[in-house]
Amino acid sequence: LAEESPDSAYHSHGSSLEEEAAERMDDEEQERLLSYWQSVGRGHQVDVPRDMAEPIQQLTRNNNPRERQSIPFTLIQRKEKLGDVLYEKRQYGKAKWACIRMKEKQYEQSICLGFMKLMRYICEQNSSGLYLGITVPIVTVVHTNEAQSAMTQAVTVAYYLPEVLQDEPPHPLDPDIIIEEWPATIVYSRSFRGITNEDSIMREISLLAAILESPELCLRDTFIIAGYTNPAAADRHNEIWFLQRP
User: Molecular function (GO) terms listed (predicted)?
Assistant: First the structure.
């Protein structure tokens, strides 16, 4: 048997040390991110399980704005007042979405738990075994009573499948996640910042209803909250969408 040269022994030993150090840093990053999400989760009365460590890390590493794919739409009209955008009228095309229905006691619990399930799907827990990529916004379909005075508990959290996956979306391993095709829709969108809960959503619905010239053209009991930042962020960028009647 040929003896291993001291030089090659050094390199193989050195590379294994580097790999160990990289793994240790990897584990430390996972722990740090998991504990941050767990502390945020407690604030929303949500338990973030340990098996979320890897999806959280994958999503965080791939959360570069340049890596995110925005959901395509056509801007039909922008209504402004004194330089401020009051709302936008947009056309979204027919598309496939990964959807999960949630019915927790509080809205924040529903979106956090729904988002975590979708994260697992995005982060390799799908029939392709691949990371699917982030699209923004992640949307939540909410419902109110006819008078728009109260929200119902049932919501749908949905992830728009990237363009390259629209024709053949990977199947979710989680049976709770359903792939749905949504029809082309015209929406009236108004931007707002901060946390999203029952109170802030009802306030935003009232504000947009008061601004729109013809709110009767829109559905009265179904709305969409579009989130451009993850539910763990404090100062979130959101939009409220009114859906024009078909």
Answer: heme binding
